[in-house]
Amino acid sequence: MAAGAVVFIGQFAAWTYVTPFLTDYTYLSSGVITLLFVVYGCGGIVGSLVAGSLFKRGVIGSFVGSTTAVAAMLIGLASAGTLPWPAGLLLALWGLIWGIANPATLVWLLDAAPENQEAASAVNVTNLQVSLALGSALGAILVSTTTLQTVFFVAGFTVLGSGVLAAVAGRFVTLAGRD
Q1: Is residue 57 in a domain?
Q2: In sequence order, what are the residues at sequence separation of 6 or more whose Cβ sits closer than 8 angstroms to the Cβ of residue 52?
Q3: What's 112's domain CATH number?
Q4: Please, are residues 5 and 130 in contact by the beta-carbon 8 Å criterion?
Q5: What is the pLDDT of residues 85-124, one digit of tens each?
Q6: Could you report the per-residue pLDDT of 5-60, keeping only the tens digit for each?
Q7: Which domain holds residue 112?
Q8: In this structure, are residues 15 and 148 in contact, taking their beta carbons and an 8 Å threshold?
Q9: Can you say whether the dihedral through the CA atoms of 126, 51, 14, 28 is positive or negative?
Q10: Total structural domains within the chain
Q11: Spatial separation of the C-alpha atoms in residues 80 and 117, rounded to whole Å
């Protein structure tokens, strides 16, 4: 749950401010940003479809790999976000990889509590909602005190921290279904 909370905090710290970032730093029009959001969403669908086969190999490993990749996308956006093509590519890849990281949190919890699936699912939703609020608040604090680029750097390192936390937890956790 902690790794899931941390990844959602990082995700929503950045996602809340992606439109201002793309307009203020990348100078993209609202039409291009809308198109990129569609590509992001389609990438997320593809990522979710791929996730099932990855989870069969290992939920925790899939989570660690995907969070590391999302962190790279966020840090990459902070670094190269002024260039339209790299920013668009990074946003598309972010959607694709987030389509793996997001469901991994639920599958991990369900595998950890096979006898309490409804409760585990409810806990995951609550965890997500609280983390969404905390991530948005973190982004707001950073936007009001620093820059949009800093928001993406902090979000990236937060997501990376989630992957590290999951990797450490994976050494001590045995899941019922897959790992």
Answers
A1: yes
A2: none
A3: 1.20.1250.20
A4: yes
A5: 999 999 999 999 999 999 999 999 998 888 999 999 999 9
A6: 999 999 999 999 999 999 999 999 999 999 999 999 999 999 999 999 999 999 99
A7: 2-169
A8: no
A9: negative
A10: 1
A11: 42
Query: Is 178 among the domain residues?
Result: no
Could you tell me the CA-to-CA distances from 139 to 131, 151, 157 in Å, in that order?
12, 6, 13
The token pair that represents 167 in the structure block: 């990797």
Token pair listed for 108: 């991990």
Contact 11, 138 (CB under 8 A): no
DSSP states along 117-158: HHHHHHHHHHHHHHHHHHHHHHHHHHHHHS-HHHHHHHHHHH
Closest by Cα among 38, 179, 16 to 104: 179
**Rounded-to-integer distance, Cα 46 and Cα 100, Å:** 9
CB 159 within 8 Å of CB 12: no
| Torsion sign (Cα): 56, 62, 66, 69 | negative
CA atoms within 13 A on the CB side of 51: 27
Structure tokens at 8: 């959602």
179: in domain: no
> Which residue, chain included where needed, has tokens 């604090």?
141
| Token pair in block for residue 32 | 């291009």
What tokens does 67 get? Answer: 């969070």
Does residue 177 sit in helix, strand or coil? coil
- 97 occurs within a structural domain: yes
